[in-house]
Write a structure and sequence with these properties.
CATH superfamily of the largest domain: von Willebrand factor, type A domain
Number of domains: 2
Oligomer: single chain
Order of helices and strands: EEEEEHEHEEHHEHEHEEHEHEEE
Strand content: 15-25%
Length: 378
Amino acid sequence: MRRQLPVLSVVLAMLIIMVCGCSGGLSPTLPSPDGGGGGSDTGSSTISTTSGVDLLPYGLSATNFEVTLNGDKTVVLDAIPARDGGVSICFIFDTTGSMGNAIDGVKESIVEFASEFTDFEKVYWSGMEFGDGTPSDGINTWDFSFPPGLTEGERTLVQPSQDLNDLNTWLDGLVAIGGGDWPENPLKALMEAKATINWPEVGARHFITIIDVGAHQRDVPPPDPDQNYPRPDGEPFCPWMGSEVLAAFRGWGIIHAVSPDYSANWTEAEADAANAPGAEVTPSVVIPEQGWDIRELADGGPPESRTHEGTGGKWTELLFRERVDLNELGILDLIRQSYTIVYRKPVDMTSAHVVITASYIEDGVSKTGTFDLGEVTF
């Protein structure tokens, strides 16, 4: 993997639909959440870096950015800071039995966290909880270990709202319960959120995924019915592979992960093989009995072993049964420094290898960073 130049630690926001014939002082409108797609002359992507050095400063313009599609330079039309174009922040929350302290920590820190976005034009708050089940599973028994008096269970969601009270009301109703086996189902929750949440037209979408174990994937069958809580239809808990979720979110939304540190399960040999010329694989780190490491969705994995930058999000270690303080996760600054880059694409182009380069001068020092999204679907 070609490494980025060591100057930027930033979240650039999604690439948006332009106003046809945009010129002069006209600003492009924000896109539908599904982007331009085939038949449109613009694309839509959310990108980020994990270089861990400088954040992009506020106030950059289109002249500070270059975009290439499959190696060919295209026209950059605008660069909009997230605080001007708006942002959507969605919490994807493991609410199984061991997560009580984490839930309480988020509840206690959300107001202070939200106060850091008062200078944004628009901020939308949403959330979805998961265990082995997700909201689409409805009331079920196989995802829950029931305490006395509780005979049914359901995972829930809250749709995007600019009113923080809506999110707080949802958080107040979360109860740490259930989860019969070790892995849980964040992959299904992320894909379900992408498909079912009513996404507003804003510059960037950020997902803060909090879990204290690994993830189910499609290739892992449900547990032995004599030992745990299998799905009644006998299907795997998750219909997705981690690589498929990565492909779906890269360029669409940035996933931040708060999860256990499974670095010891990553190997440099695997990374070297995946980085070899012509290789088409990436590490798929599965921890015995605990599931797939969702860190790969965020920053791509430990620096010495990663083969890609994930979705460009931030990974932070979650210690077992520890409280989660949103203000200490290192995610805040990445969200605040988001940019929306508007560029032109061929009408019939439905996917491309997208690379964005930022160049600017800060405090008299020239800085450059390259953001390689890999293959992005429009």
